[in-house]
Specification:
- This protein is mostly helical and 73 residues long.
- It is 92% helix and 0% strand.
- InterPro entries: DUF3618.
- Pfam families: DUF3618 (PF12277).
Length: 73
């Protein structure tokens, strides 16, 4: 009987440790600093892709042409 009690206490202690590790992991993954850093990293990666760079360059060129035309008239 005491063996069962010890085994149950060990299982409870292990479950508490597992829960503590899980909570620590969740706290780290959902911290505002971590989320902001992840969002910034994704935004920079997106902006550095060739398709986005060329699209932004094209839009910039169109805006420059329109501004120049407006100033000339």
């Amino acid at each position: 009987m005491s063996g069962d009690t010890e085994r149950i206490e060990q299982e409870i202690a292990q479950a508490r440790e597992d829960l503590a590790k899980t909570l620590d992991t969740l706290a780290e993954r959902t911290s505002p600093q971590r989320l902001a850093a992840d969002a910034k990293e994704k935004a920079v990666a997106t902006l550095n892709s060739p398709a986005v760079k060329y699209a932004l360059a094209g839009v910039g060129a169109v805006v420059v042409v329109l501004v120049v035309r407006k100033l000339v008239k």
